[in-house]
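Hey, quick one: can you model this chain's 3D structure?
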Amino acid sequence: MEEFKSGFVTIIGRTNVGKSTLLNLLVGEKVAAIANKVQTTRTAIRGIANRKNSQIIFIDTPGIHKPKHKLNEAMVETSFTSIQDADVILFVIEADSKEIGRGDALILEKIKEAKRKTILIINKIDLIPRENLLKLIDIYQKEYNFEAVIPISATNSKYKEIILDEIEKNLKPGPAYYDIEEYTDQTLRQLAEETIREKALKILQDEVPHGIYVEVQKMNLRKNKQGEDIYDVEATIYCLRESHKGIIIGKNGEMLKRIGRAARIDMENNFGLKINLKTWVKVKENWIDNPSIVNQFKLKK
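Sure thing. Here's the predicted structure for all 301 residues.
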């Protein structure tokens, strides 16, 4: 009988390379917020892939970018800390890169320092011709001895087992750290906050800069009149300015209703029960430089 393996796998890369999409593909559940904006992931989110002979715990890190304030500094620190703790690293780059840019070069340096087993994932291969891909693979293979190089499109499920097989090959024998029914160690509260924030970012597009965070104040499980389980969820969306608040609420509250409706549907699908969601919007100026808030986004050991 094959020996059971387990380990921690860090997914790292620049902002917007598709790390969260990849995490959700590999875990098979929606764990990480996905929005087409930089810095969607603020904390290191753990997702769990349970297989017949292994348990793989993924850590999706914030994208590497140049820090502009304390929140950014905490995010980048979290990403680099998780490299040190990983058994295997998935280094995600974009297929349309012509060379190793500054952000990717910085990540490569940290990987070299950590001397960790690393699998290079080249995402968005549908965007480029094959000869460009071969050149890019050659450039990266000269820089580091990767365990494998896997070109993918993270939105295509056919790559899931290929990546998981390669990770499993590089893990050591070990126990299951989590119950095999679990797919994340985030609490329902954290998942609710992530979901509301993702919907806000998607629906607002570029109307509000990235300075929003969500806090769930209440999460109460009860039975409704039909005897069904229902969660009462109350959450506040914090923004940086009064003008942002007006945009998030929208004319006659329509924008906030759209965000709430989309978040509720997603949560009901993810949690498997009914959700009664109430949302508010408040201004909290300069929260991105407030250490007590920013520290919530650092990697928790």
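One thing worth noting: The chain has nine helices and ten strands.
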